[in-house]
Amino acid sequence: MSKILLKNFLVFLIIFLVIAAIFSTYNASTEKPEEIGLEKLISQIEDEQVTQIIVKEGRLEIELIDGTKQISKKEASESLTTLLKNYNVDPEKTKKVKIEVKESEGFGFWALTLLPFLIPFILIVVFIWLMMRQVQGANTKALSFGQSRAREMHQKGKAKITFKDVAGCKEAKEELTEVVEFLKNPKKFTSLGAKIPKGVLLMGAPGTGKTLLAKAVAGQANVPFFSISGSEFVEMFVGVGASRVRDLFKKAKKSSPCIIFIDEIDAVGRQRGAGLGGSHDEREQTLNQILVEMDGMETKINVIVMAATNRPDILDPALLRPGRFDRRIVLDIPDINDREAIIKVHAQNKPLAKDVNLRKVAERTPGFSGADLANLLNEAAILAARRNKKEIEQIDILESIEKVLLGPERKSHILSEKEKKITAYHEAGHALIAHELPNVDPVQKVSIISRGQAAGYTLKLPVEDRHLHPKSEFIDELAVLLGGYMAEKITFGEVTTGASNDLRTATQLAKKIITEYGMNEALGPRTFGEREELIFLGKEIREQRDYSEKTAELIDQQISYLISQAQNTAQEILTKKKKYLEKIVKELLKKETLEREDFEALFQPKKIES
Ligand code: ADP
Ligand code: ZN
Known about the structure:
Blueprint: H1 2-30, E1 34-35, H2 38-46, E2 50-56, E3 59-64, E4 69-73, H3 80-86, H4 91-96, E5 98-102, H5 106-145, E6 151-153, H6 170-184, H7 186-190, E7 199-204, H8 210-221, E8 225-229, H9 230-233, H10 240-254, E9 258-263, H11 266-269, H12 277-296, E10 303-309, E11 327-331, H13 336-347, H14 358-363, H15 370-386, H16 394-406, H17 417-436, E12 443-447, E13 457-460, H18 471-492, H19 500-515, E14 530-535, E15 539-544, H20 549-576, H21 578-591, E16 593-595, H22 596-601
Parallel strand pairs: 1-4, 2-5, 7-10, 7-11, 8-9, 9-10
Antiparallel strand pairs: 2-3, 3-4, 6-8, 12-13, 12-16, 14-15
Helix pairs in contact: 1-5, 6-8, 10-12, 13-15, 15-16, 17-18, 17-21, 18-19, 18-20, 19-20
The structure holds adenosine-5'-diphosphate and zinc ion.
């Protein structure tokens, strides 16, 4: 109400001001008399030329005997008669002039007299009006705050994601087929007294297709799909998360049967009682609300909650109890066969040249997740397009592997001759040691073209997928990591900053060997340090020390020992095989990049040239 009143008032005010302005300009335009100085006026009075003077504040409107009109100005505070007296005008002559004092009028007058009062008033009104608008805006915002931001997805027609679009993940799909059945035909199960599962927890590394699978279940069962991310529940204000959960379930129940997908459930579902500050209260409330909603869901209502996490170890046990997320599905990083299948799925709508061998691509991509592979093919398509090709060739895909692994090549990042030489020795050092040690993956590529952060790189790829790693592999890996550093040191007598990344990696690896894998004799088969991840203003890992000061010292010692051992190994190989080091460097400086075949050819006894 008051808002309307205010608006009306403002409108009236504006109309009034406009009218006043028009009126005053109209007034001004009708009469345009000559403006004269006071001296002239006085001389005219003395000459008895003036018949009438109208005084409006500081303005004098003068009429002469012959009818011409003039204007003049005086100070507003001084009256005309005193003014004339001061100028020693003959009082007799003054009397002959008809002097009329008028209140001034018109816009100027009104503005002048009213504005000093009006301006603060207008300002206050505008201010209050703005404030009210603000408050109202905030109100509506605060109201929508508690609503879930879940995205609903109805899949239709060809765009529908089904199990066909998910390659590999055989066991997961088998397990989920049951869920699809529940959604499609609940009676079949309930008539036998079976309870419909409420929650399915998908566990797996990022990019292994958790979201994809959840969507595929919805698509396969032809039901709506609500998705929200756990981190969206965690807001600044306590209680918002819980109300979002409530809202989400309300929406979902309305469109039952359907699937609710909660991504990153670990953001809210981590063990209660761990954490810091307010965000932890909020999480707890949100988590409780999820549990309440899941428990309260009647068996008739056919809503299945699927949640994804890559940290199942930190989830609150309450989430995993029967009747909640009691179905757990693990998604592994794909093995070679699955990788091939995933590549095939993503290659479907891309024109491939005849020379493309997807099996070879799968061989070259151990450790890639489904998302990495999808990205790889996309990069390959972009690369092929940049090269004006009509089809994607094998070489485009292979080159994209490195791009996905190491970041884009930076050919423009030109090294000086000196830097190039240092980089060549550094990389040759890594490569030579990798070649000489038995427990290291074969070198696929050595390059001194900078990529991402690195000045050069040595790429090693495993021949097969491996899940278990023996200590010997780590020990050799440490020597390879130090190969670059030692090659620089032996050749130039000093090292550059180029080795810093290697050193960090090596130190972390050495620490893991001791504190996580129990591979150190002196410290024995146990772990050191309880890791605790906190989500509090971003991600943070805090390590809790669960060992004594003395042990800490020992760990330090052992890390240094492992690294110095690796240093010795590297030094030994580099000095013994200096000939090969020089060979690799020479070749690298010439070609900048050596593929596996070129690299290995360097170690073959030279063919006798004829
Ligand atoms: P997550 O949720 O586990 O982090 P996503 O489900 O979002 O991973 O996967 C990201 C993308 O990776 C998918 O959109 C899909 O293109 C691709 N992808 C992952 N796994 C597979 C798979 N098994 N088959 C086909 N594509 C996959
Ligand atoms: Zn290096």
